[in-house]
Amino acid sequence: MAKLQYSRDELMADHAYASPHEEVGYKLHGGFDAKGEYISPRTLNRWPAVSAWQKQLTGRGWPLIDATTQLLKRGHYPNIEQQKVLLGQGLGETFWNSLTITGIIEARGQALCMFEAPDFQQIIVDDISNTCTGHLHKGLLYAHGIDEGGDPKVPNGPGAHDQMWFAARDLVFGKGRYPIPEVPDSISRPDSGTRLMPQIPAGFEQLIVLLMNVLMIEVRAEAGFSFNCALLRDKATFTDKRDAAELAATMIERIRTDEAIHVAYLQTMVSEMRSFTFKTVDGGTIAGKDLIDPVWDGMVKWHGVTQADLSREQSQKEIHARIAKLDNGAQVLKAYENADDLVKAA
User: Fold this and answer.
1) Backbone angles phi, psi at 183, to 5 degrees
2) Residues 252-266, mean pLDDT to the nearest whole number
3) From residue 33, how far is each of 16, 22, 36, 40 by CA, in Å?
4) Between 140-149 and 242-275, two packed helices, what is the crossing angle to 10 degrees?
5) d(CA 6, CA 48)
6) CB atoms within 10 A of CB 110
7) Using omega within 30 degrees of 0 as the cis cutoff, is the peptide bond preceding 179 cis?
């Protein structure tokens, strides 16, 4: 039978790397095996654990929720052809900003290291000792935080995803090409102040909603990985830096490899919670699917539609303003708009 219970040390364990992960002056997490294949940090036992928890859940008749990019109902904006128009006109700031903002937001993920996850066994009727949910406070959140922004307990430790994004950016643009852009305070669904799960204590609700937000951010990130790698590997872009662009895409693929475990454990957690019976604050109980599903559906809609529409509107204004400063701005704007997926579909 597959192992289902893990200690904190086990969930934080690394593989024995044959060589370290170092690129363009950055010392980074993870490493390479003897064949030169990249291996994500702290996945020696995290992957076997998550795989075993998923198999156990589906064996009980509960499917995993969809956590693929099929949840996203809007395409990337600007799309690849539009970015190529911008890059061809020397307007790299949009892509620079995207890579920079992603790195800065990744760094914020380190906050998961500081989050004191409550023991969900306190409010769940079922025994959760052999589940992903039962291990949230046993290193899963801390490992996730380190992956994103580095270990706060090791200030000079290996760089994490934030540094990997900056390394990819610097490869194709060089350091300091443009000013650091304004970064959103949050890319999570805004908290309206309304309780979404008043049936359970607020602290537990807060963590569930936080991790649902994080899962959808990871789903959006997966779409971003595909977009960024396709753009960097398009031979019509960065024609004078093709080797650097290929390496930048490889850097992003390594981040993508790292992020897969985040999607997997969060998907498992939300799916498990649907299967549990929760104790309510009034002394009763509620089926997990009745507690979880309405909130998850709202989270998917916000990230998959609402946020994408808001982001498109803001980005469009900024990009149009940059194009307008060109001597041939009208011509470039026409080419840019003609490449818009919505315009082409109309």
Assistant:
1) -110, 135
2) 98
3) 8, 14, 5, 11
4) 160
5) 10
6) 21
7) no
- For residues 62 and 232, give the distance between their C-alpha atoms in angstroms, rounded to a whole number: 40
DSSP bridge partners of 279: 285
Provide the mean pLDDT of the chain. 94
pTM value surpassing 0.85: yes
Residue 4 pLDDT > 60 = yes
Q: Return the percentage of the chain with pLDDT > 90, whole number.
A: 88
* 84 touches 176 (CB < 8 A): no
Between the CA of residue 344 and those of 206, 333, 336, 338, 341, what are the distances in Å?
42, 15, 11, 7, 5
Enumerate long-range contacts of 52-61, CB under 8 Å, 24 or more apart: 52/2, 52/3, 52/4, 53/4, 53/130, 53/131, 53/132, 53/268, 53/272, 54/264, 54/268, 54/271, 55/2, 56/2, 56/4, 56/130, 56/131, 57/131, 57/268, 57/271, 57/272, 57/275, 60/275
Q: Where are the alpha helices (DSSP H) in 187-306?
A: 202-233, 242-275, 288-301
Residue 184 has pLDDT above 90, yes or no: no
The CA-based angle 320-93-26, given to 5 degrees, is 160
Exposed/middle/buried for 259, CB within 10 Å: 0-12, 13-18, 19+? buried
Summarised one tens digit per residue, pLDDT across range 43-75 is 999 999 999 999 999 999 999 999 999 999 999
- How far is residue 83's CA from residue 97's CA, in Å, rounded to a whole number? 12
